[in-house]
Design goal:
Shape: globular
Strand order of the largest sheet: 5-6-11-7-8-9-10
Number of strands: 11
Largest sheet: 7 strands, antiparallel
CATH class of the largest domain: Mainly Beta
CATH topology of the largest domain: Umud Fragment, subunit A
Distance between the termini: 52 Å
Strand content: 25-35%
CATH architecture of the largest domain: Ribbon
Radius of gyration: 19 Å
CATH superfamily of the largest domain: Umud Fragment, subunit A
Helix content: 10-25%
Length: 224
């Protein structure tokens, strides 16, 4: 049995249609079709992590048909990572967006590794679904001093309801931006935390040009 057959079986065992599975993983339905038809050589990086998390299977089993890849190497020993059982490794990605499209595709962010470790107890305490969490790197200065360029922020994809003064990742005309939402005069606005409001002015969040990707729920960075 090849890996794409195992993928189909695991998806069907979960009772997931291709469209629902694609939405949970953060890819398009045609991508799932390519995977299951064997048109893709293999699944790697953040996509593999999310697929296995959604289907509750091990990467070694999915891609190689074994419960543990060490079966390929008799006498080898696994390197233990301290406290790995206490953390979720969520995908650290770059977002690929299209203007007016309510959905995302992701690719691995290889700069600082492909995952971000998040405490299981923190995820449980917040009531988050770990399969709905992704991490991205902040670009630009518009959210200083709350977020600095290079900071890593965690997005909860399950939370797309706007709340006054909360921070979100937004698909703004096909561009991924991190902004604070503000309710004013019956409309939603995207606000920057940078005090230079002439440069980082507020923008109206209205219709298909402004689509919420998810709420920012955590920051990892070097600034205090």
């Amino acid at each position: 049995m090849n890996w794409h057959t195992r993928l189909t079986q695991a998806r069907e065992a979960k009772g997931l249609k291709k469209s629902a599975f694609a939405r949970l993983v953060g890819v398009s339905p045609p991508t799932v079709t390519d995977w299951e038809n064997g048109d893709t050589k293999m699944i790697v990086g953040a996509n593999l992590i999310k697929v296995c998390a959604v289907l509750d299977v091990a990467p070694d089993w999915l891609m190689h048909g074994v419960e543990d890849v060490l079966e390929f190497f008799p006498g080898a020993q696994r390197v233990a990572i301290a406290d790995s059982s206490n953390s979720y490794q969520i995908p650290k990605v770059k977002l690929r967006l299209q203007a007016g499209i309510n959905g995302i595709q992701t690719e691995s962010d290889g700069m600082d590794g492909e995952t971000q470790g998040i405490s299981r107890s923190w995820v449980s305490r917040k009531g988050f679904d770990p399969t709905q969490l992704i991490a991205i790197q902040v670009k630009g200065e518009s959210m200083e001093p709350t977020f600095y360029e290079g900071d890593t922020v965690v997005i909860n994809l399950a939370d797309k309801s706007p709340h006054d003064n909360a921070v979100y990742a937004i698909n703004y005309g096909g561009e991924a931006v991190v902004k604070r939402m503000s309710r004013d005069a019956g409309q939603w606005w995207l606000m920057s935390d940078n005090s230079d409001q002439r440069k980082f002015y507020r923008r109206l969040c209205n219709g298909a040009e402004c689509i919420i990707i998810g709420r920012i729920v955590r920051r990892e960075g070097d600034h205090f």
